[in-house]
Amino acid sequence: QVQLVESGGGLVQPGGSLRLSCAVSGITIRSHRMGWFRQAPGKEREFVAGVEWSGTYEYYGDSVKGRFTTSRDNAKNLATLQMNFLKPEDTAVYYCAAAVGGGDIRTVSTYNYWGQGTQVTVSS
Questions:
Q1: To the nearest 10°, the Cα dihedral for 122, 78, 7, 83?
Q2: Which of 12, 40, 56, 64 is spaced 20 to 30 Å from 92 by Cα?
Q3: Do 81 and 117 meet the contact criterion of CB atoms below 8 Å apart?
């Protein structure tokens, strides 16, 4: 059974930081591209960040470039999302996802497996 479990969400003040982790079991992420998406109430799921199999190439949504960093540890089967300089508009449920094959890393339909999500709230 494939499981992706996000952790690290919570309440943070504007300008603060959070680090999300995605622990994966049932598959080896070495053979998967990993992505992060978020969804705010009433909005569509939005691409946040993605990283290719080897970790060499990273991709970011325009709204988070320069503030968020994604990484992967294939040995630990773990993906992470470091979020700095958080803004109230970053408030959302954050999901990690794994993709087996090709396709646009920024697109929801590219991904085969999803976590249950973790809430991030940025508020003073």
A1: -10
A2: 56
A3: no
Structure tokens belonging to residue 61: 């949504």
Q: Which residues pair with 60 in a beta bridge?
A: 49
Beta strands in 8-112 (DSSP E): 10-12, 18-25, 33-39, 46-51, 58-60, 68-73, 78-83, 92-99
CA-to-CA distance for 114 and 79, rounded, in angstroms?
13
Q: Map residue 26 onto helix, strand or coil.
A: coil
Amino acid at 80: T
CA distance to 13, 14, 15, 63, per residue, from 96 (Å): 23, 23, 23, 17
Token output for 100: 């087996």
Over 90: is that where the pLDDT of 101 sits? no
Specify the residue for token string 């990690």: 96
Query: Contact, 4 vs 20, CB < 8 A?
Result: no
Q: Which residues contact 58 (CB under 8 A, 6 or more apart)?
A: 49, 50, 51, 52, 69, 70
The pLDDT value given to residue 82: 98
Give the tens place of pLDDT for each residue, 60-70: 999 999 999 99
Beta strands 113-114 and 10-12: pairing type?
unpaired
